[in-house]
Amino acid sequence: MDLGVEHVEQRVATGPLPAQEEIDDLVARALTHATPHGEGAVADYIPVLARADPALFGVCVVDVDGHAHAVGDTQAAFSVQSISKAFVYALVREHLGHDVVADRVGVNNTGLPFNSVMALELNGGHPLNPMVNAGALATTALVPGASADEQWATIQAGLSAFAGRPLEVDDEVYRSEAATNQRNRAIARLLESYGRVELDPLAVVDVYTRQCALSVTAHDLAVMGATLADGGVNPVTGEQVVAADVCRDTLAVMATNGLYERSGEWLLEIGLPGKSGVSGGIVTIAPGKAGIGVYSPRLDPAGNSVRGQRATAYLSRALGLNIFASDAHVPTRGSHR
Ligand code: GLU
Questions:
Q1: DSSP-H helix ranges across the chain
Q2: CATH code of the domain covering residue 251
Q3: Where is the domain boundary, 185, 212, 239?
């Protein structure tokens, strides 16, 4: 995957972020770096998504002090789609604990498209991970609540706490997806047939469809990501949304599965946990440092924002975020070298 960042100096992830003004400058440069890449196609399998303005492009970094660095269309609204999977996973993981969720939902990459039925069939009906639809539907089914309405209220309140403001459903997106989500209904029925969903599968799909239709901005994604970067504390509101160990698990499943079939390439190039959605958003987390939210609707064939990947790759290098990058240590007195 060529993201055009070979010329950007690779800073290492240890140590602090650059100074505030330098972050502003690098966020602006990331936008300029990615803007010429107008290739890719806007998603149209959910009919209303096809109407998104392909020119929109916003990049926002929110650090763990709550400072925002935003350039471009960072207040443009779009439906959160698959990015919701990461945050609903965190809520369920908070509620049920590490072992139960790992057992019920899985953590391994499928190597297959996000809405694959085959992945489920090849794995004896056990969903492979919470970032693809089978595992995401199984995760939504585990959300606490005595009814679908209560589960929905938990999700809406939880994702709003991550964003630090009340998030609302885009009704048009919800209706458009609800009318065309036969495949997700089939996956939910298949999960039911394997005993993996104990609730009414269609009610689970309905809650999942609502969570995908929550309306967010690139700025929201950066705050949501910064909360996962900050041990579960929203750095803008100060609210502890989930526990620190929940963030750790959430980032692990994002790192292995967040960018559809390109998750390995993403990790190789960017070196950070992230999650993308078909409306063109990507949230990326630099643990202990910052969240990055990007929005640009044109997608690569796997469903990841083309400009969003480029801008994030630029920032990973220039801000020193890649968690796998190190410099040779300068031996100190008493060192064994
Ligand atoms: N609501 C979408 C679906 O389940 C999410 C797709 C995505 O963003 O990957 O089909």
A1: 20-34, 83-96, 98-105, 118-122, 133-141, 148-163, 171-178, 182-193, 201-212, 218-229, 244-257, 263-269, 306-318
A2: 3.40.710.10
A3: 212
Q: Average the pLDDT over 164-190 and give the result.
A: 97
Strand partners of residue 124: none
Mutation choice for ligand 1 from 42, 45, 82, 83, CB with most ligand atoms inside 8 A: 82
Mean pLDDT across the stretch 119-131? 82
Angle of helix 98-105 relative to helix 244-257, nearest 10 degrees? 20
Q: Cβ distance 239 to 233 under 8 Å?
A: yes
pTM: 0.94
Question: Which residue among 157, 186, 212 closes a domain?
Answer: 212
- Residues with beta carbon inside 6 Å of ligand 1? 81-82, 114-115, 133, 177, 184, 212, 277-278, 303
**pLDDT tens-digit profile of 307-333?**
999 999 999 999 999 999 988 888 888
State the pLDDT at residue 337: 67
Q: What percentage of the chain exceeds 70 in pLDDT?
A: 99
- Give the separation between CA 311 and CA 37, rounded to whole angstroms: 10
Same domain membership, residue 90 and residue 200: yes
Torsion sign, CA atoms 237, 242, 244, 246 = negative
* Catalytic, out of 174, 208, 295, 314: 208
